[in-house]
Design a protein that fits this description.
Blueprint: E1 2-9, H1 12-24, E2 32-37, H2 44-48, H3 55-60, H4 62-72, E3 77-81, E4 85-90, H5 92-98, H6 109-115, H7 120-131, E5 135-142, H8 146-154, H9 161-170, H10 265-269, H11 337-351, H12 359-373, H13 383-397, H14 402-416
Antiparallel strand pairs: 1-5, 2-4, 2-5, 3-4
Length: 420
């Protein structure tokens, strides 16, 4: 039996890194699918163009990513999906969507996902995520390897799809509409520190605009719940007892003896009529019972109080401000991420390249460290003071990967702060 494990990611480079990790872990590449929205035609250009791997494309990372996808998965091609528009797709999902040939779509993305075993409600969410510009990775795996595939997909940049869907619904979204035709994709996103920055289209500011910073507070209350108890039931049972008692019983004996002697005067005086009665008696046991209290059962409750630490995560909108056209300086006076990127690449090359993988896998960690170093909340603080907090924030989106990436995060933090 197989199951389908699905993850969505912000960019193609991250998705390809996840596919690489799945293949390197021994998962069948023919059972892995990728779908990416291509509304701006940046992907299909590299599929159709023989020069996809030129130096410019490699520098941008796009051509290299598409080339890597074509080398990993079968059936890479461009499609047009109803309700989404142009996409590039590879793997079983691409075959299901394309039907007899590339571009000749015979079914919708909802039906293709349902055929892979995805519940209909979840299929609507994943289809909408692709429509909004995210990249979907789906892997059909054996039952006994579901947990392993899930861990791999969570390592780098996995989107919390349930949280995103909740945001869509609060804005009026009720489900993916495959009959709505091609629609403009809203690619504007708030920067998320631990998944990398998403660049937004340039446009002129016609009027004042306000970015609202939203932050959640953690409120902890108390409620009483039953955790157990005692039921005491009384009942009466009879217990046999024995006592010994001595009883007296009388018996009257009549004895007649033949005699032959002369009668005396006393005998003559008794020579008259009369009746003598002699009665027999016997003793019988008489039982009396007295009730006595021999034991008391008392029931009470001990009440104790203890302090319990409640841990959770709260969300806060982070707004990243970059000044353009000022010699590469960010709004807070620090150098932009792109200036540090060559150094980060060199650090990865000398530290991690021998262990396999690629720089794009570690890039979110370097960017996260850069973001921490430029955040006013951590200004003037030491790494040992902020590590527990930033550890929890990283794990909230990249569960189980802190030990793998914390050195890269701290290096970026120290580099931006001028400590290395």
């Amino acid at each position: 039996m197989t199951k389908t494990v699905i993850g969505t990611y912000r960019d193609m480079e991250t998705a390809i890194a996840v596919v690489n990790d799945l293949v390197n872990a021994g998962f069948n590449r023919n059972s892995i699918s990728v779908i990416a929205n291509d509304a701006d035609k940046k992907y299909s250009t590299y599929i159709d163009n023989d020069n996809a791997a030129d130096d410019t494309a490699k520098g941008a990372g796009i051509g290299a990513a598409i080339g890597g996808l074509g080398g990993l998965l079968l059936g890479l091609g461009a499609l047009a999906i109803p309700g989404v528009g142009p996409v590039i797709a590879a793997g079983p999902l691409a075959a299901a969507l394309a039907g007899a040939g590339i571009g000749a779509v015979t079914g919708g993305i909802i039906g293709a996902l349902i055929d892979l075993g995805v519940p209909e409600e979840s299929a609507h969410v994943y289809a909408e995520s692709v429509r909004r510009g995210n990249v979907l990775v789906a892997a059909q795996v054996e039952d006994n390897r579901v947990d392993e595939a899930t861990r791999i997909m969570k390592r780098t940049g996995l989107i919390d799809i349930e949280r995103e869907a909740a945001g869509w619904r609060s804005s009026g979204w009720t489900g993916f509409d495959a009959t709505a035709g091609d629609r403009t994709i809203d690619r504007t996103r708030t920067t998320v520190a631990n998944t990398g920055r998403m660049d937004t289209p340039s446009r002129k500011l016609d009027k004042d605009e306000t970015f609202e910073v939203v932050e959640e507070d953690l409120q902890v209350g108390k409620r009483a719940v039953e955790t157990g108890g005692v039921r005491v039931t009384s009942h009466v049972r009879e217990v046999p007892v024995e006592e010994e008692v001595r009883l007296r019983q009388e018996h009257v004996n009549v004895e007649r003896r033949p005699v032959d002697r002369p009668a005396t005067e006393a005998d003559l005086n008794a020579f008259r009529e009369g009746t003598i009665e002699v009665r027999e008696t016997q003793e019988q046991p008489v039982i009396a019972k007295n009730a006595r209290v021999v034991e008391e059962v008392r029931i009470n409750k001990d009440v104790e109080e203890h302090t319990e630490k409640v841990r959770d995560t709260v969300r806060r909108t982070e707004v990243e401000v970059e000044q353009l056209g000022r010699s590469g300086l960010a709004g807070n006076g620090s150098t932009t991420y792109e200036v540090y990127d060559p150094d980060f690449r060199n650090y990865w090359q000398t530290t991690y390249s021998r262990s396999g993988g690629n720089y794009e896998r570690y890039q979110p960690a370097f960017r996260y460290g850069y973001t921490l170093a430029t955040d006013d909340r951590y200004r003037g603080r030491q790494w040992r003071d902020i590590e527990p907090e930033v550890h929890r924030s990283w794990e909230a989106q990249n569960q189980g990967t802190w030990e793998e990436f914390k050195d890269s995060i701290q290096y970026a933090w120290d580099k931006v702060r001028g400590k290395v």
